[in-house]
Write a structure and sequence with these properties.
The complex is a heterodimer of chains A (382) and B (199). Chain A is globular. In chain A, helix 1 (131-145) crosses helix 2 and helix 4 packs across helix 6 (262-277). In chain A, the strands form 3 sheets. Chain A has an 8-stranded mixed β-sheet with strand order 1-4-8-5-9-10-11-12, with helices on both faces. A two-stranded antiparallel sheet of chain A has the order 2-3. A two-stranded parallel ribbon of chain A has the order 6-7. With 382 residues, chain A is α/β, with parallel strands linked by helices. Helices cover 35% and strands 14% of the residues of chain A. The relative contact order of chain A is 0.13. The two termini of chain A are 39 Å apart. Chain A is built from 10 helices and 12 strands. With 199 residues, chain B is an alpha/beta fold. Chain B has a single domain (5-197), classed as Vaccinia Virus protein VP39 (Rossmann fold, 3-Layer(aba) Sandwich). Chain B has 8 helices and 7 strands; from the N terminus they run αβαβαββαβααβααβ. Chain B has helices at residues 5-13, 29-38, 49-57, 94-104, 118-125, 150-159, 178-182, 184-187, and strands at residues 19-23, 41-46, 61-64, 79-85, 105-113, 162-170, 190-197. Chain B has a 7-stranded mixed β-sheet with strand order 3-2-1-4-5-7-6, with helices on both faces. Chain B is globular. Chain B starts with a helix and ends with a strand. Classes of the chains: A alpha/beta (382), B alpha/beta (199).
């Protein structure tokens, strides 16, 4: 953390863990008899309990969305640019809740947790959870927090999928669904990228069919590769070019296979940093939830029918240079919402930062969010 | 928020409780007023991000789209009115767009600056492209690429089988006086039409 907490920061925050012992039957057929969810909150829940905003995280995110955990932190939470006093999601007005998804590796029950049935870590035996399962678990968290209806449920990428699923599954519990850089289902190309990432992990010799922890190793190379591949697909060619060009680390070719171009060095650094903080089994599981997500499958593959029962007002945002979750995918959702006569606003924000744009402080993007949240606030008071 | 005069007149034309699509809705003030005072609902379509931020602040649904790309996102007969104020002169395919408006809505409403107004004719008579309050740009910087006169517009409606249901021309004070009714193409600065497909 900087010497002093910057203005507009949610400040020093600490997570809470809640234990749930009502069994949760998952889409895959397995029942989790008990589980923990770890979450953070920013701001204060008002007496009417109608100022709560649920943040859903993406593939590699967690519950730490804003503020700092301690004075040792070099970086704040992953969506700190958006959440805090005076920020687009103004914690002076809203009570923000951000939880770690089941199957994750940041404190909610997942592959790293101890399986009560065996006394050992779940590892690869942890069941694959879906976006619907996450929404169900988050609904129970809402009950535990006394939140009957969210002022907004929002997220980017996989988080946006959760926001959409919330609006479908719990029409009466979501006032606004904010779906950013997401899709109502992945494109074939997107599933293909996920499969390469999974193969990289699963064919690492240290993977041991997912039981790597029992061998005191991690499939470092595989997870690194998966992250390197993911990372370049989250950015645009223009951004990579602007950042690294063809710059060489030593200023000359060494005619070998070690790191030469700066982009190679950057990718390796990104990969290594990721290995330190993320579990390979969780990564595999999360990519599967992404691939499986297709709420229209329950409604004759008709997206119009899928959203017909939604009561939330929607804000859909895409980014022009996002080729992993392209604007066309967001427009499909918008079209279905229009056809179903739902309240929806949509903007395709001009940005060169690719899919990662949703995490960045891009002026028109933040202006839209700020404007939208002021509107939610006005409706809430009215 | 005050409505522009042509917008205020549109509010008088529209039946309460209608579903409206406002193409090139700007900051959304027309739709916001129609929602507030006439029980209307619907969407604005706008291209400019700053305007979209304002639309959201004004409490209307707004969808970003370029009118030149067509209106495929909207179903047939899904609106009572499709409105386009002071925008038709800036789109690439006005004719196509008018048909799109009537595909999506039961009736269309357009307003545009009338090139037949005497001030425009006067400037042209002296060999200059007109620059007026409603056409403020020089010929090389104007976004208005399809300017027409009241007479031109009505010719096109005839050839395109579009039935004009209501016409008003207003002057610079946005009054629709007797003179405007007698000589709309000469004295009207802004032309306003409500129309539908000819049966």
């Amino acid at each position: 953390m900087p010497d002093s907490i910057p203005a507009g920061s949610a400040g020093v925050v600490s997570p809470t863990t809640t234990h749930f012992d009502e069994p949760l039957r998952l889409d895959c057929g397995v029942t989790l008899n008990e589980y923990d969810l770890i979450f953070e909150t920013y701001g204060t829940l008002n007496v009417e309990c109608n100022n709560a905003v649920l943040i859903c995280h993406a593939l590699s995110g967690d519950h730490h969305a804003a503020g700092y955990h301690s004075s040792e932190d070099s970086k704040p939470g992953w969506w700190d640019s958006c959440i805090g006093p005076g920020k687009p999601i103004d914690t002076n007005e809203f009570y923000v809740v951000s939880s770690n998804n089941l199957g994750g590796c940041a404190g909610s029950t997942g592959p790293l947790s101890i399986n009560p049935a065996s006394g050992k870590a779940f590892g690869p035996e942890f069941p694959i959870v879906t976006v619907r399962d996450w929404v169900e678990s988050q609904a129970r968290l809402s009950d535990a927090l006394g939140i009957n209806r969210w002022a907004a449920v929002m997220g980017g990428s996989l988080g946006g999928m959760q926001a959409l699923q919330w609006a479908i599954d719990y029409p009466d519990r979501v006032a606004h669904a904010i779906v950013i850089a997401a899709a109502s289902k992945l494109s074939t190309q997107n599933i293909a990228f996920n499969e390469i990432a999974r193969q990289a992990i699963r064919y690492d010799t240290s993977f041991h069919h997912g039981h790597y922890r029992e061998h005191n190793v991690v499939p470092e190379r595989g997870l690194m590769l998966a992250r390197m591949l993911g990372h370049i697909t989250y950015l645009s060619d223009d951004v990579l070019h602007a950042k690294f060009g063809r710059e060489l680390r030593d200023g000359k070719f060494n005619f070998g296979y070690d790191v030469e171009f700066q982009i190679e060095s950057y990718l390796r650094h990104q990969g290594q940093a990721f290995v330190q903080r993320f579990d390979a089994n969780s990564y595999l599981l999360m990519t599967k939830s992404l691939d499986y997500f297709d709420p229209a499958a329950q409604f004759d593959n008709d997206l119009n029918k899928t959203v017909a029962g939604c009561k939330a007002q929607f804000l859909v945002i895409s980014f022009t240079s996002d080729w992993r979750f392209s604007p066309a995918k967001s427009r499909e959702l918008v079209r279905a919402l229009l056809d179903a006569d739902k309240d929806v606003s949509y903007i395709d924000v001009d940005s060169e930062h690719g899919h990662d744009s949703f995490l960045m402080e891009i002026q028109p993007y933040h202006d839209v969010l700020r404007s939208y949240f002021s509107r939610i606030q006005r409706e809430r008071i009215a | 928020m005050e409505l522009r005069a042509d917008q205020a007149l549109i509010a008088e034309w529209i039946r309460p409780g209608s579903r409206i699509l406002d193409l090139g809705c700007g900051d959304g003030r027309l739709l916001a007023a129609l929602q507030r005072e006439h029980g209307a609902s619907g969407y604005g379509v706008e291209i400019d991000p700053e305007n979209i931020v304002k639309c959201i602040a004004n409490g209307i649904n707004v969808v970003q789209a370029n009118l030149d790309d067509g209106l495929n996102d909207f179903d047939d007969n899904s609106f009572d009115y499709v409105v386009m104020t002071q925008t038709i002169q800036a789109v690439r395919f006005p004719q196509r767009l008018l048909h799109e408006m009537l595909r999506i809505g039961r009736e269309g409403i357009v307003t545009f600056p009338n090139m037949g107004h005497w001030k425009c004719r006067f400037q042209l008579a002296f060999g200059k492209m007109p620059i007026t309050r409603h056409l403020p740009n020089t010929w090389h910087s104007t976004p208005n690429i399809h300017i027409c006169t009241i007479s031109d517009f009505e010719d096109m409606c005839t050839s395109e089988k579009i039935e004009i249901l209501q016409r008003t021309a207003v002057d610079s004070e946005h009054r629709a006086g007797v003179a405007m009714r007698v000589l709309p193409n000469l004295l009207g600065e802004i032309a306003m039409y409500r129309f539908r497909r000819r049966a």
